[in-house]
Amino acid sequence: MKSAPLAIVVRTAGTNCDRETCMALERAGAKVELTHLYRLLEQPARLEAASMVVFPGGFSYGDDVAAGRIQGFEVRQSLAPALFEFVAGGGFVLGICNGFQVLVDTGLLEGLPQAGKREVALSSNVRGRFECRWVHLINEDSRCTWLPAGRVWPVPIAHGEGRVTLRDDAVLERLKSERRIVLRYVRPDGTRATSADELEVCPNGSLDQIAGLCDLTGRIIGLMPHPERNITPWHHPQWTRLSGTRTEGEGLDFYRRMVVAASQSAATRSGRIPTNA
Fold first, then answer.
1. Do 97 and 226 form a contact (C-beta atoms < 8 A)?
2. Which of 81, 158, 236, 244 is found 20 to 30 A from 38 (Cα to Cα)?
3. Are 96 and 55 in contact (CB under 8 A)?
4. Whether the predicted pLDDT of 25 surpasses 60
């Protein structure tokens, strides 16, 4: 029987979505190790046995200075080279909410092995407040080919600094042409918001209603919403009203597909990570 791929879920002070993330990955078919960041900094060779590294949500180090900034600094200073090598060998890196903020802050999402000119940032929500509600996402036609394009699914958000901002319009056009926009906030029917209802559809005011991005390999993925908070039929606040037979929450499909893709990628262990140079 084929062994389950290993996912390392990284926790640190202030992380509070690690247990839910572990449960989602286990239900999706992965073997999971919940590991403190410092253990990984001390022993980066732990990555050799893994197919996935996941930075879950929460408020690492209390989001002092800025959301994900301190954890991002630690990863950038001591772990980024090992993570780039891990991805070059076929490994997947996922950042959810605070984990997305870490990936952006380190430059991992942009393919910056050393400190470089970042072009992507996550800023304070446009209304200047914490947003905690359910939204709908659509899978875009992206480099994450394991996500079926066009699928619309509900998922909760809970963040204060989740607004995707870019250096200029040229960066947005490049992200589009490189197929690095993985997820967008949409209406329940899958249509894009207009100015009249944009903040109801995309509460943080994210540029171009972007909810998730990936790197050029499609193996480093960051998203603000929390799929792990919608893995059972009963997680959705309106589960009794939803039509059809739901045997699981829609977020579980995201993890299941990623586990399969990471397992297949790890089996090949080929290719090198491209850069944005």
1. yes
2. 158
3. yes
4. yes
Six token digits for residue 145: 């080919």
Give CA 130 to chain center in angstroms. 19
Report how far residue 52's alpha carbon sits from residue 225's, in angstroms, rounded to the nearest whole number.
19
d(CA 107, CA 77): 11
Q: What is the dihedral of CA 73, 78, 81, 83, to 10 degrees?
A: -80
Query: For residue 40, which of 9, 64, 84 has the smallest C-alpha distance?
Result: 9
Sequence-separated (6 or more) residues with CB below 8 Å from residue 78: 41
**φ/ψ of residue 130, rounded to 5:** -70, 130
Is 89:222 a contact under the CB 8 Å cutoff? no
| CATH node for 6-120+134-268 | 3.40.50.880
Q: Quick check: 131 and 203 in contact, CB under 8 A?
A: yes
pTM of the model: 0.93
Active-site residues: which are they? Answer: 97, 226, 228
* Domain edges within the chain: 6-120+134-268
Q: What one-character-per-residue DSSP string does the chain give?
A: -PPPPEEEEEE-TTB-SHHHHHHHHHHTT-EEEEEEHHHHHH-GGGGGG-SEEEE--B-GGGG-SSTTHHHHHHHHHHTHHHHHHHHHTT-EEEEETHHHHHHHHHTGGGT-SSS----EEEE--TTSS-EEEEEEEEE-S-S-TTSPTT-EEEEEEEESS-EEEESSHHHHHHHHHTT-EEEEEE-TTSPPP-TTTHHHHSTT--GGGEEEEE-TTS-EEEESS-GGG--STTSSTTTTT--S--SS-THHHHHHHHHHHHHHHHHH---------
pLDDT tops 50 at residue 273: no
